[in-house]
Design a protein that fits this description.
10 strands; alpha/beta; eight-stranded parallel β-barrel; 2 domains; TIM Barrel; 14 helices; two-stranded antiparallel sheet
């Protein structure tokens, strides 16, 4: 497998990273089989978080005996010092390891610095001094915060949503990281499930030699697909470029990334799914969404009272109420057309 250097950490990992959010959804036996097969086929970078329920525990169960051969990344929100340190300790326990290679502050709204009143960065410095973490890193959904963090020199890697739909501003982070020798980890490489052509997504990110995409894997067929792409990398042909351009034209830069930071909604609207539901219907099996349950969920959009909370929280500066109203209109049109056929 092609290797990528994660910036000034000098950690060298397989280009194909394993995103460990989805393994929560399968049995422990299934997740162990997936993780072991990935490792045996050259995957050496595994990304998780203490908030992903049993994900860290599953990594410890499957990979603790090969710990010295892999790089583990986990993350925590920027909590008060005692809670942040407790998360670090729990991550170590769950993953059955004495150290975490890449420890990421997850989606802070500002750049935490040494000597800050909140004590966040100093807590990480202490954990590093004590050998519990090797590198202080950042995971973020705001291009502005991400760029500032890279330029600050305080963070050794950056994890950011990067894919073929990314804007020029977002893609510029890749070059900025190279300039500052910061490692780049691409999350949501399939745009949170909106992209269906893995070849195009893979080929696009493979064009950046300092990027390690983490592919969220739940099923064996998904793992096999990405291992095959790594074994026989597709070229970014005119055909694949056309597919990417088509997705960009249909989705534009204003699509919801499903990060969920707009939640919870006081009216119970499932914003992070409802704001992209028609795109998901067109790109994957639609039965789960064209149901009475989801019709009721979508109807809650009519109760939106424009409180503004979701707009304030959105790291992509979107206007969720406007997107939701548009999605509701399109959803109702699809529902009226498709449901009679299904019935």
């Amino acid at each position: 497998m092609k290797q990528v250097r994660l910036g000034r950490t000098n950690l060298v990992v397989g280009r194909m990273g394993f995103g460990c959010i989805p393994i929560q959804r399968v049995s422990f036996d299934e997740s162990t089989t997936l993780l072991r097969k990935a490792y045996e086929n050259g995957v050496t970078f595994f990304d998780t978080a203490n908030g992903y329920t049993t994900s860290e525990e599953r990594i410890g169960l499957a990979l603790s005996d090969v710990r010295k051969n892999i790089v583990l990344a986990t993350k925590s929100a920027p909590l008060p010092p005692d809670r942040l340190m407790a998360n670090i300790e729990n991550s170590l326990k769950m993953m059955k390891t004495d150290y975490i290679d890449i420890f990421q502050l997850h989606n802070p709204g500002k750049i935490h610095r040494p000597g800050g009143e909140d004590g966040v960065y100093d807590t990480l410095l202490k954990a590093k001094k004590d050998g519990k973490i090797r590198f202080i890193c950042l995971s973020n959904h705001s291009a502005e915060v991400a760029a500032g963090a890279v330029e600050s020199g305080l963070f050794d890697t950056l994890q950011y949503p990067l894919c073929s739909l990314s804007t020029e501003e977002e893609l510029a982070l890749i070059d900025l990281c190279k300039e500052h020798d910061v490692g780049v980890i691409a999350m949501k490489a399939m745009a949170g499930g909106l992209l269906s052509d893995a070849s195009a997504a893979f080929a696009f990110l493979a064009g950046y030699d300092n990027v390690v995409p983490i592919w969220g894997i739940q099923h064996m067929w998904e793992l096999d697909e990405f291992l095959e792409l790594e074994k026989n990398p597709p070229e970014l042909t005119d055909e694949l470029r056309a597919a990417i351009d088509s997705d960009k034209n249909s989705l534009g830069g204003s699509f919801c990334r499903a990060c969920g930071y707009c939640m919870p909604c006081p009216e119970g609207i499932q914003i992070n799914t409802a704001a992209r539901i028609t795109m998901m219907i067109r790109r994957m099996p639609s039965e789960n969404f064209l149901s009475a349950e989801w019709k009721a969920n979508m109807d809650k959009i009519n109760n939106c009272r424009e409180c503004g909370q979701c707009r304030e929280k959105c790291p992509y500066h979107l206007n969720p109420p406007e997107i939701l109203r548009r999605q509701l209109k399109e959803y109702n049109e699809l529902y009226e057309k498709v449901i009679p056929i299904l019935e």
